[in-house]
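Before a colleague's protein record goes any further, I have to sign it off. Would you go through it and say whether the fold makes sense for this chain? Take the sequence as given and treat only the tokens as open to question. The record follows directly below this note.
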Amino acid sequence: MTRGALNFSAVKFSVHVLKPKNMLQPRALSIALMFLVGMSISTPMFGPSPANADETRKPNVIFILCDDLGFGDYGVFFQNLRRQNANRAEPWHLTPQMDLMAAQGIQLPHHYCPAPVCAPSRASLMLGVHQGHSNIRDNQFDKELANNHTLGTVMQGAGYHTAAVGKWGLQGNSAASEKTPNKQAKQSKPKDEGSPKSWPGYPTNRGFDDYFGYVRHRDGHAHYPKEDGKQIWANDEEVADELAGCYTADLFTARSKKWIVDHHSASPDQPFFLYLAFDTPHAVLQLPSAPYPADGGLDGGIQWTGTPGQMINTAGGKPDSYMHPDYADQTWDHDQDPSTAEQAWPDVQKRYATDVRRIDDCVGDLLNLLADLAIDDNTLVVFTTDNGPSRESYLPEKYEPDFFNSFGPFDGIKRDLWEGGIRVGAIARWPGGVAGNRISQSPSQFHDWMPTFTELAGVAAPARCDGTSLVPTLTGKGEQTPSQIYVEYFNGQKTPDYPEFKKSRRGQVRKQMQAIQIGDLVGVRYNVKSHNDPFEIYNVDDDPQQMKNLAARFPDVQRQMHDKVLRMRYPDKSAPRPYDDELIPGIGDSDSAAGVKWQTYANDTPWLGRLDDLVADESGEAKTVESCPKTSVSKSLLVSGIIDIPANGRYTFAVPDNATAVLRIHDATVIDAGFEAGSNPRTGTVMLAAGKHPFRLYWKGSTVAPELAVEGPAIDRQKLRSSMLFQPTQD
């Protein structure tokens, strides 16, 4: 459907906003609805500034992740513009609770997912790394999440009580395939495909104190676990037989509310981290069983009853039956001719709008709960989605996301690297720390949440983390460091041939794809067969649909993009790329002094931190890595320098077997041994071009002296000799 001009007009919807006791009243909704119409601000125009909260008090954190919700499905990002246009040939749906959340917080319309499909996107979120460093890439559903730092482990280590609720899909030891029948499959429960004891990547093995939800990827395709024969796990117990009539968006919300209330009652002074991963509006477009209960919060809204067969208070209705009244009787100008009678919305589109509205109600319910418990001022809530919109319904009637233009003003959907597939947006609300009514134009990506949360929790991000803390953006205090925006992905399908998309992209072969952002320019390439293949280059601020390829104007940026994508990733044999064996180019530095630089830091976390973010206790220079100071267990060491590589070829670097260390060459993590001693390989192999290559060696203090060895063309394994080492020209 065409995007059309945007003009304000009346609408045919009723809007019901749950009224919390201590939150903005419905007038704030009208403010939010106008907010994105040509407006971009970086400072509050009205409303209170963040409270001067006790900086030593760690905020609670709730991270809400949807499944296949598009950028264009948020009211504040796109649907409200269609509503204001009131073009009857361009239908719209509403998200009043998300709009209210946005009015009370900050919008991040330039927020990107790490991959345009669920498993790798969630893996990068959990691990705090982009797809060039994740162990789960492409379509590796149900693969074991790496035994490494996760959002769960770092928040646990910072003193938080942690829980994951909803879809997981990162457990391991389970057959995985992207090929799932395009129909609703009501099947018997699998005989035995594992349990928490046999799933190494189960949430409680990855830093979460509690888990409730779908573990296997395919189970999350249907949304009535008992009726659809799917498994729901509550820690070590499978409980689906007790969940008759439970629609999963309601179920996961009720369980989250119960978990928050129980924790607040038992340990009110301990901060909590909740990862709530909805499995909707993904896959089977099933409807809820009943209207959303009124009011929300502690005593209203969705409630956990604890009674088998009636586990939540909406379980008594008929499954897959409730259509939201705002959409049940909607019609549209199907032929763009006002003189002819309008037709009813297709049933599958009513279902989609209802499912999105249900998530919206769940969000409002949770925010009301925080207000009722008087903890909303000290709770950061982040809302986003795992990738762009899908074209799946798993029903006889086909669903297409161009009815509502769920991809927003962009081209591309789920499994695309055009903006519509990877630019997902986010909303963050924290009344005690984030001033409301703001929009940030800074690009960010999922791996930025780990260092954001660790900074708020008062601990360092792990050394392997690729992200940038978004605290300056959220709080409006300090200067925001630019994020690294990077995506790599393979898919054998094609971009849909929607008329809204640029003609050359309709039916475009995907295969190997890659995207990188440098400054305000985004580079994208499809069907990559060689590293020499050029990036198409776009300024997505001026050209969000990526219609005007600027590559001919920016040959220097083309070269920078080609170099940067080699310097910031580490190949994974399970997801081969045509550029895996390319030589990483050097930096051409010729004026560096001999030796290396070192800094020591206090160990304030139980893991090897990203020391660059901290203030050093001591610093100095040394001739070699081995001549840097040996640090005690209460200290960590950062050694930075430049390695002069004598010839093109494959080089293997190594640290001692009992060292806790991370080695980055350029921005690529070459040795990742920072989780716990003995758990990860102590070597890493990279293709390096002759020339100078910057490195950073993070070293956790111990009885082991810092040491870095190398082996390569004409070099037997040896410690890096002084003649190969130079100091970085800038810290």
